[in-house]
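Lecture notes, part 5. Sequence design as translation. It can be helpful to think of inverse folding as translation between two languages: the language of shapes and the language of residues. The source text, in structure tokens, appears below.
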């Protein structure tokens, strides 16, 4: 992508009156609640708790402010955030045997708003089956689709696309809310020729690629128009929405940046349960302790949360002992069950100039598009460059005849996501990213040092199970068939990488040699039923065996949903906040 032109921005970042850069600016260090992590979930929790003026909340965020970060504000610039930079932790996994020894990037946000500030903004809830499985595994009907849907609505503020185009036939208003906080919208910019081809292909291949009016209805199967967390041509994150001007000035809410938590502090025991009175954090080379009279809430994400637990003495006793870390609670599931979705890309050169290349490789057009965004937040920079995604299942006989059982949550749940239908820079081309949604493979997030500031060990376990490779291979075949629809005959020139004539074994090697992460890591502090001998939190999100300590972030997902994880994380955080408020009402 071209370097952005020096254009004076019309956009003015909101004034964050209660976001502090230095601990000395805080009125004190004793609060009712301490929330660790000002990310996607953490900002929901702090917003909802401070609706009660009697609750005081301190938020400890290790990262920097999102204010004025243009790569986060402008949707088109998202790819600049998904590479090494100061706004993320710059983690990579350990070498993955399933990827022929390669390691892959695992972006985790180091900025207020967390991954909602630097993700690709896809808004996909998943299937009703996904959340009904959550309810079944935890024994708590509150995690079912029907009971969580009000929380999806509580989060979502449906917003017309910035170009004000006619959205009839592109979504179903009945399954959306206009009363929430976080903006969700259809793309405000698209490529007309490509979009017409996509929709026409669903008419020509209705049995395999049916059109789905709205993938967020709980029944996502089919191909439809992408929905993203964009409002008014700008990214909507938990920092810009839940910490917006109408909320951040609450007197009982204080957010401290550059505050990296090392461990839970002030351990004690009462009635046979472990408890902590505060959180130790580092800022400016000095340690401080934020004290919590009611509860500590970990919202540090699927990497940060298990790391804090282990450095606090909560985890597998044998592993902690080997690191000379005293064990306060033997909880072997901490850091286990790590689940991410492997992804493979395909591309084709096309007989069209309606592609991202017409902007990204043309300095004049790039500057014009940026100037348009500065004037009105409209045009190509108001969107992410992709307009459609699809959700497909493999047939039962495809799985059964190969000796596999269905890993999805139910009959309305997809196995694969051919998503990101769009155009990569570098040539006039189109691309599709294929995601294996229900991987059987599992990994872990662990520590290899007693130093809490050393990088964790991230093992996503990609493609260890044959079914994951099989699913990826069959997904590629389905996408190849999609582009054989008659509508594409004069549009597609040639594949960028020709995989059509590869044998199954060669296709498997292509997957292992090219797969990367979808950046949807979950499960490292998973929910389970109360009394279960596995899992990290009970269904009320309280850490097993610990009082006054909860986890509210994507690490509590027992399974990765058949979707992107942003929307589900928001819903879990909304319900989690209600559970906390109810406990202290």
């Amino acid at each position: 992508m071209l370097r952005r032109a020096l254009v004076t921005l019309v956009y003015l970042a909101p004034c964050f009156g209660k976001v502090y850069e230095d601990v000395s600016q805080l009125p004190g260090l004793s609060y009712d609640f301490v929330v660790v992590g000002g990310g996607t979930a953490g900002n929901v929790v702090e917003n909802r708790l401070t609706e009660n003026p009697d609750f005081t909340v301190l938020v400890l965020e290790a990262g920097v402010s999102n204010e004025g970060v243009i790569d986060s504000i402008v949707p088109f610039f998202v790819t600049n955030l998904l590479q090494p930079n100061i706004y993320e932790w710059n983690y990579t996994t350990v070498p993955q045997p399933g990827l022929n020894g390669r390691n892959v990037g695992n972006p985790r946000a180091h900025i207020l708003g967390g991954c909602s500030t630097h993700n690709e903004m896809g808004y996909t809830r998943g299937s009703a089956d996904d959340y009904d499985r959550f309810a079944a595994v935890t024994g708590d009907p509150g995690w079912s689709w029907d009971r969580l849907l009000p929380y999806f609505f509580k989060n979502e503020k449906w917003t017309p696309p910035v170009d004000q185009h006619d959205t009839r036939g592109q979504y179903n208003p009945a399954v959306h809310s206009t009363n929430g906080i976080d903006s969700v919208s259809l793309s405000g910019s698209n490529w007309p020729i490509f979009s017409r081809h996509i929709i026409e292909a669903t008419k020509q291949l209705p049995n395999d690629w049916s059109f789905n009016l709205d993938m967020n209805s709980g029944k996502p199967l089919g191909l439809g128009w992408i929905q993203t967390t964009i409002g008014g041509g700008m990214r909507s994150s938990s920092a810009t929405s839940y910490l917006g001007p109408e909320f951040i000035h609450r007197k009982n809410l204080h957010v401290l940046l550059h505050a990296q938590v090392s461990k839970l502090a002030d351990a004690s025991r009462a009635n046979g349960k472990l408890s902590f009175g505060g959180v130790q954090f580092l800022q400016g080379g000095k340690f401080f302790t934020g004290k919590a009279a009611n509860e500590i809430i970990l919202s540090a994400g699927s990497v940060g949360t298990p790391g804090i637990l282990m450095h606090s003495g909560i985890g597998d006793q044998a592993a902690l002992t080997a690191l000379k870390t005293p064990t306060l609670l033997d909880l072997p599931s901490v850091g286990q069950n790590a689940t991410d979705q492997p992804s493979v890309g395909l591309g084709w050169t096309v007989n069209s100039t309606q592609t991202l290349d017409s902007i990204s490789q043309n300095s004049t057009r790039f500057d014009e598009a940026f100037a348009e965004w500065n004037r009105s937040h409209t045009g190509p920079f108001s969107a992410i460059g992709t307009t459609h995604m699809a959700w497909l299942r493999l047939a039962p006989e495809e799985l059964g005849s190969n000796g596999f059982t269905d890993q999805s949550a139910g009959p309305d749940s997809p196995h694969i996501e051919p998503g990101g239908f769009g155009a990569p820079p570098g040539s006039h081309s189109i691309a599709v990213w294929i995601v294996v949604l229900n991987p059987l493979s599992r990994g872990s997030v662990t520590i290899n040092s007693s130093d809490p500031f050393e990088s964790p060990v991230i093992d996503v376990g990609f493609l260890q199970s044959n079914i994951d490779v099989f699913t990826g291979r069959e997904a590629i075949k389905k996408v190849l068939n999609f582009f054989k629809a008659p509508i594409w005959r004069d549009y597609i020139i040639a594949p960028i990488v020709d995989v059509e004539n590869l044998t199954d074994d060669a296709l498997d090697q292509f997957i292992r040699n090219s797969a990367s992460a979808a950046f949807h890591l979950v499960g490292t502090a998973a929910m389970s039923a109360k009394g279960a001998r596995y899992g990290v939190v009970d269904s009320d999100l309280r850490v097993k065996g610990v009082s006054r300590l909860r986890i509210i972030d994507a690490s509590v997902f027992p399974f990765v949903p058949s979707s992107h994880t942003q929307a589900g994380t928001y819903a879990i955080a909304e319900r989690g906040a209600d559970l906390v408020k109810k406990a202290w009402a």
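The translated text above is only one of many valid answers, since several sequences can fold into similar shapes. The chain has two domains: 30-160+236-339+520-585, 188-225+342-438+464-514.
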